[in-house]
Amino acid sequence: MQIDAAPLDRPPCPGCSTYLMEPFIKCAQCKPPVLLCLQCFARGFEKSGHESDHRYEIVTNEFPVFDLDWTAVEELKLLEALGDCGIGNWQEISNNVGTKSATECESHYLLYYVSRARPPLPVFEEPKNIEQLCPVTAKLSEDPPRPAADSVRAVEMAGYMPARGDFTEEFNNFAEWDIKDIYFLDDDDDLLRALKLAAVDIYQSQLKERCRRKKITRDCGLINLKKHQMYDKRYIRAIRDMKDGLRPFLEFFPPEQFEKVMEGLILEQDIRKEVRRLQELRQAGISTFRAGQLFEKLRLRREEELGRRHMLTDVLSNMQDEFACQQWLHRQAHM
Asked: Is residue 108 within 8 Å of 70, Cβ to Cβ?
């Protein structure tokens, strides 16, 4: 962002009363904007109406626009000097710019403002290798499933018609009936006309609700339920049930944010489970991770030994009764 004003034309910093020199900070939330020097911004200066957690902008012209050797300040000085001195008087233009020679001013102007076929706009490279979440969405270019009309899959898709990209039955499917007999006549009085307009407004709100529901269905990939189920197989049953319970909240979150919320809840459950395990170890007198691993191995071995003892007890108790022994052997064979 740039502000074309001399330092003395700007209001002083409200924190230290010094004149603002670039770069300085401009509050993006306060009206009129609050301008702060870097020192007051760094120490979190606040005043009536302005708080330190407001959004802000860095105001400076010390950045390259077309050429790395030319800053935005020098570009502005070059254009102002061209308007004052005229094209061709490069020595006088160089004197007004102050930091570039006449040859540099001429070559820079001819290269970036004359020779270019397109308007001189900077081209910024897009960032690369940015990892983003990939939610399950039904993109416009994605071909949804096309089941038979009387199949179970068609029922799961709530009457969605892939060839038309629409549903056989709309939300509030009979909303048009409320306005089908409404006609606006010249002899309608003010009250009757207001009632008719109110009915039309209600119908328009129903149309907006239809579009909103369709957008949620499409953005969240709710048309292709089989794909959702395959995607959710990576979670255990408890996580899948929790996600199904939270699915109504999809209308309040974008798909990416909903996936982030789910990952956060899953992480919270894992942390709680680990905390309970550590508390059990601490109650058993375990204070190191190595001792905890040994304790877990010994506990598993003890549980296996107890299982063998219970089996031996069952065998001894059933040996005296032949019929009970046969039933016990039958149960063991089917386990």
From this structure: yes
pTM for the model stands at 0.36
Q: What pLDDT shows up at residue 3? A: 44
Return the pLDDT at 12: 82
Q: What is the pLDDT of residue 139?
A: 42
pLDDT of res. 121 = 55
Closest CA to 135 of 45, 243, 291: 243
Query: Could you tell me which residues are beta bridge partners of residue 161?
Result: 166
Q: With beta carbons less than 8 A apart as the criterion, state whether 222 and 249 touch.
A: no
For position 186, what pLDDT does the model report?
83
At residue 328, the pLDDT reads 65
Below-50 pLDDT ranges, the chain? 1-6, 117, 130-141
**Cα distance from N-terminal residue to C-terminal residue, the chain:** 74
Please, which residues have CB within 8 angstroms of residue 324's CB and are 6 or more apart in sequence?
317, 318
Q: What's the pLDDT score for residue 4?
A: 44
CA angle 46, 52, 58 (to 5 degrees): 110
